[in-house]
Amino acid sequence: MSNDRDFSQSLQSAVKDAAHDVRPLQLMGHGSKSFYGRELAGEPLSLAEHRGIISYEPTELVITARAGTPLQEIEDTLLEKGQMLSFEPPRFDGKGTIGGAIAAGLSGPRRPWGGSPRDQLLGIKLLDGQGQILKFGGQVMKNVAGYDLSRLMAGAMGTLGILLEASIKVLPKPMQEHTLTFSAEQPTAWALLHKMLIEGVPITATYSLDNNHKVRIACSQQRLGEIKTRYGLEPSDKPQSGFWQGLRDQQHDYFKQQSPLWRLSLPPAAKLDIEGRILYEWSGGLRWLATDRPAREIRSLVEKESGHAILFRNGDRRGEMFHPLHPRISVIQKQLKQVFDPQGIFNPGRHYEDY
């Protein structure tokens, strides 16, 4: 297909040389998520030129692309057939590649209803730390039997290998989406959202900040009128697609604060006893908190509510950015690193200091 550039052989040679010299590599796409994770050292290795859509089967709802393929190119191709990446991958600076989206494992506002990158990943081609090209999974769900190693790469931040290709399940794009707005105290808003969810309202995104709330729904104009009447909500008087894209890419003023920005994952109904303005997404399952409070205090409070906290932006990147792992999980992570990257050359320290 168009813009198809296969750089797998040159990448393989670069990895073999680096493994031989035990020389760390800093894997880079467009750099749109370079702020995320611990500070990196090592020789930059660009993956952005390894790009191109290899195959796209609209009737099978699957697309296969090289990792350096820009998200914009993929989404434009899908849009022509009325389809989309259901996890709504963030772009941050307006760029981003499909490989970076999978490696970061991040999702946009549609996540609770459209799934995560891990959920939609069917198969991959991977370049490991010894220069071997490995293939896991397939292009349809029925080909994925046993433990699916391809999904380990979603959220691995490039620490286990170089993603060369990915086959991803896509979904039909809603024909219409509308945004409803309302103002209410947080407990009242949560009760209303919960009622809407259990009554089957086709919600695709939520937003709450300072008692101002927005709900995105996918439905016809007739259904919109029924929802408006039943719940006493008003449709926005302006198109809101730009609002949700800005939320996805963190372009809103809330995200431009200089204080450390925390990404808190919690049960939607969890009550977090902490000071500060919190921006809520995913019906309360994802919360953003800009604060200078100590990391230990934040993580302790979140743990009490069965959640975890990531220092997402503006913190000291020499310290721990991700939530501490349970010792048993940490052992498994290190064993996986030893299998896929025995010389420790891929993004060392991106997740945690010791791997």
UniProtKB/TrEMBL annotation:
- Domain of life (superkingdom): Bacteria
> Pfam families, alphabetically?
FAD_binding_4 (PF01565)
Sorted alphabetically, the keyword list is: FAD, Flavoprotein, Oxidoreductase
Q: Which GO terms describe its molecular function?
A: FAD binding; oxidoreductase activity
What are the FAD-binding PCMH-type domain coordinates in residue numbering? 1-173
Q: Which InterPro entries match?
A: FAD-bd_PCMH, FAD-bd_PCMH-like_sf, FAD-bd_PCMH_sub2, FAD-linked_Oxase-like_C, Oxid_FAD_bind_N
Which E.C. number(s) belong to this protein? 1.-.-.-
PANTHER family linked to this entry: D-LACTATE DEHYDROGENASE (PTHR11748), GLYCOLATE OXIDASE SUBUNIT GLCE (PTHR11748:SF103)
Q: What is this protein called?
A: Putative FAD-linked oxidoreductase
Q: Which organism is it from?
A: Candidatus Thiodiazotropha endolucinida
What lineage is this protein's organism placed in?
Bacteria, Pseudomonadati, Pseudomonadota, Gammaproteobacteria, Chromatiales
